[in-house]
């Protein structure tokens, strides 16, 4: 398959944030080096099994293994042949857009045209003091950097001035990617304003569906397409994707029983980091794995049905699952990838046509 021209009508892939969490059964915690090796193995497996996209997210904390998605994805590019490579997400408020474009244009050259950028404002704010930014500029930085990245994507030589960085005067933006432009997505969580921004910029919108009933996300897709049309963008260029947490096993009950200790441990740790005492009960977990809720956990048939149900609501053309959550052994993660690629992906593509 040529990654530049041969894209399926509906893309399915996996992504990782490289979280480093204690295994609830063994009490052991993987090292950052081990997690990076597992990420590389997962990417190779996803590529070999025919999945379409592999994503790597950015954090700047000791409990995550990945702070530089383009470096990790460059390693993945050399070990894979056809799978598309994206950040999931880049914290665009605290990275220089010129540096970001150069890194991903280089990745695009190394991968023969497979690079993409998914940008977000970030669930954690540690990158702001780390790189000398003020959290009071949280939204302004993201807006300006998004605009500048789009300009860099479209032009080899740029003149630009803004509020948060030095101006560019007749600046040569190099290297240029293999693709005419690096595909640019904006990750959207719980705010309508983010969906409107993605549409106004003409970027793809990646809906992060991590909790709550599916119906509450449908207005985001409508707002995105409306904002894109009002900004003059071709409706055919306005792409919606869905990202979410998942785990697959041969039957649904086994999947839920196996995944619950890892998932509850993951959220217990995340909530502790945020100063919250909430712990996920089995009742809470079973609710969010229900057919009309967010979590993609179950048998291949159950996960397929949930993706198709969401396709009816959002009309999306891409689904990415985060499968390596909460300190799971790699063998479990690999089995989820196999079931997603071998059973879910064919069934979804056949149903959507």
UniProtKB/TrEMBL annotation:
This is Alkanal monooxygenase alpha chain. GO terms for cellular component: cytosol. PANTHER family: BLR5498 PROTEIN, LUCIFERASE-LIKE MONOOXYGENASE. It holds the Pfam family Bac_luciferase. Keywords: Monooxygenase, Oxidoreductase. Residues 13-315 form the Luciferase-like domain. The gene is luxA_1. Coiled coil: none annotated. GO terms for molecular function: alkanal monooxygenase (FMN-linked) activity. It comes from the Bacteria. Signal peptide: none annotated. It comes from Bhargavaea cecembensis DSE10. SUPFAM superfamilies: Bacterial luciferase-like. Its EC number is 1.14.14.3.
């Amino acid at each position: 398959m040529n990654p530049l021209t041969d894209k399926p009508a509906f893309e399915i892939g996996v992504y990782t944030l490289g979280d480093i969490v204690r295994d609830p059964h063994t009490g052991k915690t993987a090292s950052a080096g081990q997690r990076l090796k597992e990420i590389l193995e997962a990417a190779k497996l996803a590529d070999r099994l025919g999945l379409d996209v592999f994503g790597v997210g950015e954090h700047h904390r000791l409990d995550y293994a990945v702070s530089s998605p383009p470096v990790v994805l460059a390693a993945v590019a050399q070990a894979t042949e056809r799978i598309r490579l994206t950040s999931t997400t880049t914290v665009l408020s605290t990275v220089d857009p010129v540096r970001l474009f150069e890194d991903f244009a280089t990745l695009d050259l190394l991968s023969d045209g497979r690079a993409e950028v998914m940008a977000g404002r970030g669930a954690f704010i540690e990158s702001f003091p780390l790189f000398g930014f003020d959290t009071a500029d949280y939204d302004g930085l993201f807006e300006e950097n998004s605009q500048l990245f789009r300009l860099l994507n479209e032009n080899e030589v740029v003149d630009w001035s803004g509020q948060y960085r030095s101006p560019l005067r007749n600046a040569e933006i190099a290297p240029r990617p293999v693709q005419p432009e690096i595909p640019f997505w904006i990750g959207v969580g719980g705010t309508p304003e983010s969906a409107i921004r993605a549409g106004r910029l003409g970027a793809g919108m990646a809906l992060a569906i991590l909790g709550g009933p599916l119906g509450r996300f449908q207005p985001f897709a409508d707002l995105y397409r409306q904002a894109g049309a009002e900004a003059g963008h071709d409706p055919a260029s306005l792409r919606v994707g869905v990202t979410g947490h998942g785990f697959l096993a041969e039957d649904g009950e086994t999947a839920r029983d196996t995944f619950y200790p890892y998932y509850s441990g993951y959220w217990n740790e995340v909530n502790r980091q945020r100063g919250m005492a909430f712990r996920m009960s089995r009742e809470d977990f079973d609710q969010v794995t229900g057919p009309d809720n967010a979590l993609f956990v179950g048998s291949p048939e159950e996960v397929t049905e949930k993706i198709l149900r969401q396709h009816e609501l959002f009309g999306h053309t891409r689904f990415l699952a985060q499968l390596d959550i909460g300190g799971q052994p790699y063998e479990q993660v690999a089995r989820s990838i196999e079931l997603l690629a071998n059973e879910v992906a064919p069934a979804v593509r056949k149903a959507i046509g």
